[in-house]
Amino acid sequence: MKITVTVNGQEYDRDVEPRLLLVHFLRDELGLTGTHWGCDTSNCGVCTVCLDGTPVKSCTVLAVMADGKSVRTVEGLEQDGELDPVQKGFVECHGLQCGFCTPGMLMTSRWLLDNNPDPSDHEVREAISGQLCRCTGYENIVRAVRWAAEHPGTSTSTSTSEEEVTA
Amino acid sequence: MQVPSHFEYERATGVEEVLALLAKYGPEARVVAGGHSLLPMMKLRLATPDALIDINDVSELSYIRVEGDELLIGALVRHAELLASPVVAEHFPIFRDAERVIADPIVRNRGTIGGSLCQADPSEDLSAAFAAVRATVVIRNADGSRTLPVREFHTGPYETEVGDGELLTEVRVPIRPGGSSAYEKVDRRAGDWPLAAAGAALWLDGGTVADVGIGLTAVGAKHFVAAEAEEYLRGRPADEDSFAEAGRIAAEHCDPVADQRGPADYKRHLAGELTTRVLRRAAERART
Predict the structure, then answer these.
(1) Sequence-ordered list of residues with C-beta below 8 angstroms from that of A140, at least 6 positions apart, any chain
(2) CB nearest B109 (choices: A19, A54, A131)
(3) Which of B106, B110, B119 should be substituted to probe chain A, the one whose Cβ sees the most A Cβ atoms within 10 Å?
(4) Using an 8 Å Cβ cutoff, are A70 and A160 in contact?
(5) How many whole angstroms separate alpha carbon B274 and alpha carbon B185?
(6) Best mutation site among B36, B102, B104 for testing chain A: the one with the most A CBs within 10 Å?
(7) What is the number of alpha carbons within 13 Å of residue B65 lying toward its C-beta?
(8) Residue B79 in contact with residue B172, Cβ under 8 Å?
(9) Is A60 close to B39, i.e. CB distance below 8 A?
(10) Is A56 within 8 Å of chain B by CB?
């Protein structure tokens, strides 16, 4: 089945089987391996990407469901060589150890801050409650998101803008 | 890697189109929206539908509004939308209580109200919540539509009254003055299925229980309802003794099974305790 998906502002045309999951489409068809593939049961959240601006677990979304829609992955956080504040926060606060959960944590954190620019620690914990960190580094992850909230700097929205869609 | 078996994929944009596609593909077609129950089952090959009809673009089913004395919820409303809705919180805090503990925020972005009811998982929270508030459901088919009480909607685990060629389109909740509601669940960790959960909707006439609805999740209550406890409580004083006795009756009449989440006697204990707590909280809310 022929689909057209806009990923990080770039349009991709592919012919895929309906049973192909979005996470595998991104990783195997487009080579965007920043999105990780974890539990495969929508528990761990490492595969979280934004679909039309809303974070979803891409192991439980079909690629064909993204036909005609826009997807933002962790590769799309950086803008013109500048890391997103949440990425900087993870660097500053040692928000990752093995890094496996990081892409999902980053996408969810960006979405949280877009909707709640100054979240409490509790609100951060609630927002990432669908993401598992196998290193159990939650304390530093919460600090990293708080750091990003305090340094909004060059923040960019999770929703793909009109310009990006037509780019 | 878990891969579903082959299927045809169709995306519909209207209810009529969904019904036409269901007619075209026959009984082995399945409707998919959030897909957070169906797709995992397909990956495990527990479900192998011939065709999936994607209703994510059927925007006519995505609404929450009050019409007359009813709250209308379209089947495509996401869990996150039900949680965030001020009109839902105003009339039925039971849904805010329940939605806060259903899965996690990312799953709630995708999963839908209609999907949850139609999946009919015995551990699914909204079935008991809708049973407590005595909702009705609207089912569309080629001949038109029919409504039935949500308390008659589930015919067994993973089975509902939705027949071949039919689509659940709406849930209606009657708004009645003088009452409030609450939901509480015990789970082992954030986002997990419940060991047990209870929901209550309570209407007061002074210090008396004028009417009550009690829903139970994951403890084998028939149609997710604690009918005997409701019957006991109606017309009694809205006080601690009545709520404790209603909890005891709810625990006595449910039928939990032991599994990896916990032993049956513990679940039965929870059913009683949670029933008492939600009755207490609903009464507190109704008085303020």
Answers:
(1) A93, A94, A95
(2) A54
(3) B106
(4) yes
(5) 7
(6) B104
(7) 7
(8) no
(9) yes
(10) yes
Q: Which two tokens stand for residue A33?
A: 């391996």
**Taking each helix axis from N to C terminus, what angle separates B240-253 and B264-287, rounded to the nearest 10 degrees?**
150
Burial of B217 (0-12, 13-18, 19+ CB in 10 A): buried
Chain A residue numbers with beta carbons less than 8 Å from the beta carbon of B4 are 19
Contact status, residue B250 vs residue B244, Cβ threshold 8 Å? no
How many CB pairs (< 8 A) connect A and B?
A: 75
Q: Where along chain B do its domains lie?
A: 8-54, 59-174, 179-287
Asked: is B8-54 a CATH 3.90.1150.10 domain? The reply is no
For testing contact with chain A, the best of B6, B7, B8, B9 (most A CBs within 10 A): B9
CATH code, residues B179-287: 3.30.390.50
Class of domain B59-174: alpha beta
A2-77 domain in CATH 3.30.365.10?
no
Contact between chains at A56 and B43 (C-beta distance less than 8 A): no
Token pair, residue B78, equals 């996401």
Q: Name the A residues in 74-93 with CB < 8 Å from any B CB.
A: none
Chain A CB contacts of B109 under 8 Å are: 54-56
- The rounded distance, in Å, linking the Cα atoms of B174 and A135 is 48
Class of the CATH-defined domain A85-150: mainly alpha
Give the whole-angstrom CA distance, residue B14 versus residue B84.
25
- Do residue B43 and residue A40 have CB atoms under 8 angstroms apart? yes
Amino acid identity of residue B20, one-letter, is A
- Could you tell me the CA-to-CA distances from B8 to A1, B11, B21, B32 in Å, in that order? 10, 10, 11, 12
Name the 3-class secondary structure at B59.
helix
One pLDDT digit (tens) per residue for chain B, 288 residues:
889 999 999 999 999 999 999 999 999 999 999 999 999 999 999 999 999 999 999 999 999 999 999 999 999 999 999 999 999 999 999 999 999 999 999 999 999 999 999 999 999 999 999 999 999 999 999 999 999 999 999 999 999 999 999 999 999 999 999 999 999 999 998 888 999 999 999 999 999 999 999 999 999 999 999 999 999 999 999 999 999 999 999 999 999 999 999 999 999 999 999 999 999 999 999 998
CB interface of A with B, residues 120-139, below 8 Å: 126-127, 129-131
For chain A, which residues make up each domain, given as ranges? 2-77, 85-150
Q: What ipTM was predicted for this assembly? A: 0.94
